[in-house]
Amino acid sequence: MSNLSKTSAVSTAGVLISLGIIYGDIGTSPLYVMKAILGSASITETLVYGGISCVFWTLTLQTTIKYVLLTLQADNNGEGGIFSLYTLIRRRAPWLIVPAMVGGAALLADGMITPPISVSSAVEGLRIIQPDIPTVPIVIGIITIIFLLQSFGTEIVGKAFGPIMLLWFTMLGVLGGLSLAEHPEILRAINPYYAYNLLINYPGGFWVLGAVFLCTTGAEALYSDLGHCGRPNIRLSWGFVKICLLLNYLGQGAWLMTKEGSVLRENPFYGIMPSWFLLFGIAIATIAAIIASQALITGSFTLISEAIRLNLWPRVKLVYPTLQKGQLFVPSVNRLLWAGCIGIVLYFRESANMEAAYGMAITMAMLSTTILMSYYLYTRFKSLAIVTLFLAVYISIELAFMVANLSKFPHGGWVTIMIGGLLLTVMYIWIKAFYIKRNLTEYVRLKNYLPALKELSDDDTIPKYSTHLVFMTSAPKPKDVESKVIYSIFQKRPKRADIYWFVHVETTDKPFTSEYKVKQLEPGHVIRIDFKLGFRVEQRINLFFRKVVEELVANGEVDITSRYDSLSKQNRIGDFRFVVLEKFLSYENDLPFKNRLIMEWYFNIKKFAISESRWFGLDTSSVKVEQVPLVISPAKLPELKRVMA
């Protein structure tokens, strides 16, 4: 049984895994939500009851209905996330790449703020015991350790996540329930009237939504991790998680009502803990914050790997630390996230200050998902009424959250918007450059060159370049090939070989497709192989190609024995050599300003990406990389006039 099938069906193990992987972000929100709602205002019944009512209905409408019940339906062969959702509908509406890019950039920006605010909120509990303790070095140390451990994968640590988070949510529920028992009147806060009263009648009440929104920031990550646990396990575990979260929020509200009329001076999350339990509670909270950070980091790795295969991000090194499905490590992104997290800790220093930066970017991600999801619902149900209702409800809710979050902008919200904007700029440059190159790549009919290839292969006057010559081609049609490839074979340096192989890789909209086709264009001389690989499949073309050749030999479709007489008698296999064409921007270009700027930045960013040969997993000892000038718009030369000497 596959990993996917094991986690797709409802099981105790599946539910436990979902607790450990999915709910880190949303599960640690009680650490800071009520503290953010109260701020420096006096504790009143309107503010406490209204705040909890807003939290209850946000978790119900936003997390439960939108994500757990509706969005989880949009699974791409068991995979979730904004890019998986986009691949389900992109063929019908290519313009939807815009909200997909915005949402992806926002989620990556969120990955830089979640570890600092979660770990800082947990560690700051130590100030109750030791008021003068310096928390910033502790937070930086913990975050650094988290990122250092990423290269080992989370297979071993992941097995412990579920039981720890089960303990965490149980602790939330029990502590909240005990506090709730002392002031059961707080249960009235479930009535939506209290939320309405706070937002409409309380001075500045609408802006409290910016703090309320923090309770649901992990909902987007919940959808992104669909592939790890399966829809049934997520839905079942969410029931338990939501009850525990609400009990804790209600318990914090009950405790706050005992302080009515005063100004909040301590985190209500720790206020409901007995003094003898405090140290243990801080330790569990810190571990839960680490798990929340871990989930966001690994989610960012998955997001980047999908973006790369959708041509939205430079091809960077991907590492698979274990054999377990979903285990992925991206060194460059790990360093980028670490630097971002440390910068945020040093800039804001306190979790209360980070609350101003938290939530701004993620509202953009949720709005993007709403737009993509509405189109998905239309393609599935063909009902304008359903789509209109969905859009009206969730655009209204999320726009309200966005407007409320705008009050945070001058106080730190600009940080995540700036980070998200930079990431979005990289995505825009990369996809725009991809289309510019694709639209202007010249293809030729391969059948017109088959006789010449056969003659070159048989021409003993030209030294043999390789027994088997393999070209990576971007031509989508089997009968076509780039004109630059033909130029490389016949003119740059005549490349004589016994067999010419043309290999094309197509990334499919499904996550785990692994298929190939073989076409003998000129039997025994020219062969084309087309790989169809899912956007979550590692492109180890060297190994895939070897396996295909072995199958062709076993079926008697091709003979790879060396054609040198002396080696053929010994049944020696001929050598294989790959040729990869890497483009560079030619000086012979006369581009419009915008396109020139895009292409210049594209090639500047490309310096930090890995080479084509490394990306395709080719053995570097058998690869020839040829630099090919990219002439997009030839410069217009002045007329030259010959003068007599």
Summarize this, please?
The chain is 57% helix and 10% strand. With 645 residues, it is α/β, with parallel strands linked by helices. The strands form two sheets. The chain has a six-stranded mixed β-sheet. A two-stranded antiparallel ribbon has the order 1-3.
Comma- or semicolon-separated keywords:
Probable potassium transport system protein Kup; six-stranded mixed β-sheet; about 10% strand; K_trans_C; potassium ion transmembrane transporter activity; symporter activity; 8 strands; two-stranded antiparallel ribbon; K+_transporter; Amino acid/polyamine transporter I; disordered N terminus; alpha/beta; about 650 residues; 27 helices
